[in-house]
Amino acid sequence: MRHDNSVLHELTKQIPWAAFHRLVAEYDADLRVRRLTTKSQFLALLYGQLSGAASLREIEAGLASHESRLYHLGAVAPSRSTLADANANRSYRVFADLFAVMVAQAERGLRKRIATAVRLIDSTGLKLPGLSHWAQFSAQVCGAKLHVVYDPDADRPLYFDVTTARVNDITAAKAMPIEVGATYVFDLGYYDFGWWAALHRAGCRIVTRLKKNTPLAAVEALPLPPGSAVLSDRIGHLPARLAQSRKNPFDAPVREVRVKTDTGKELRILTNDLDTAADAIAELYKRRWQVELLFRWIKQTLKIRHFLGTSENAVRIQVAVALIAFLVLRLAQKAAANIVSALAFARLVRANLMHRRQISHLLGPPPPIIRDPSQLALDLLQT
Q1: Residue 231 parent element (H or E)
Q2: In sequence order, which residues have a C-beta less than 8 Å from that of residue 158 and are 6 or more positions away?
Q3: Strand 143-151, strand 254-260: pairing
């Protein structure tokens, strides 16, 4: 008789376990641990993200009901209090670094010319439980930010960080790694000429917006493509001086492409690419909304709006595991070519998570039960 692992077991084949165990040893995550290993903690949280569990109690009850199927995963069903302690005290770096390893491995499989690589940068707010004093924003509100660098072509995040809501987006961006030669697309939250200059020196293409009150010393007007939404296309220079008589570090020539959106709003799109067609620059900026779809997906589908702990470490662990779950789903979906929709695939995984089925058969009927031949012959004689 053919043996099928559970869907959760099949999904975990996307995890680089050798790297995971190396990270556990590097951070002494299992040092003096008697009950819940880091692997069991990780699998419990991964189960929580994929199943849509909104609390530690749901994770505890769900895994306890399927405890016999955790054996092949090398994990045990945790108690709620033990899992809460592990989330509060065990280093989040194990999970954050595991995410980085998985991204690096996936990128090697999809290596392309860096000149064509597009990177979208944005952040989203995370409302935290009231006891999250480390992220106190006001007397009644606790909040954090998830900062992401996203690859829209591969549909996966490449880098993330979690800060308090008080941290400006540009502050977090300056800590992000710069990929030499890539195209970076971002909004007004990253308005910093010094950071733009650093990207320009690294050979990166910049596509962003200019504020309404930022003057441009135009030196050349480029011809407009016929029948497009482009209103003007000019090459010029940003102001030479900044506030408090500081010199602007970004003195290279730039390009302003003014476009009208479908709603009638005018945008001043800025880029250091002086050659690409204006319509193509406008389309690049329009792609920025794909990262918004990522945020909506992980908040609604992976239930990242419900946090399992109040400490900074617990929040960082949950965000890292949620993004790992996102990568696991994307990688597994490629193996199930008959399921095109990412949302449909996530729903099928949730419905069958602890069932013994092959991922490629999630859309079809359950596999037939192969009975013992002697029993089958006996049944035929009786009929």
Answers
A1: strand 230-237
A2: 103, 107, 119, 149, 150, 151
A3: unpaired
Q: Any residues with CB less than 8 A from the CB of 153 and at least 6 apart, and which?
A: 112, 117, 118
Write the pLDDT tens digit of every residue in 237-272. 999 887 666 788 999 999 999 998 888 889 999 999
Domain residues of the chain, as ranges?
7-95+310-361, 204-274
* Residues 135-192: tens digit of each pLDDT: 887 777 888 999 999 999 988 999 999 999 999 999 999 999 999 999 999 999 999 9
Map 306-368 to HEC letters.
Answer: CCCCCCHHHHHHHHHHHHHHHHHHHHHHHHCCCCCCHHHHHHHHHHHCCCECCHHHCCCCCCC
Element spanning 118, H or E: strand 118-127
Nearest one of 196, 238, 247 to 218, comparing CA atoms? 238
User: What whole-number distance in Å separates Cα of residue 183 and Cα of residue 218?
Assistant: 24
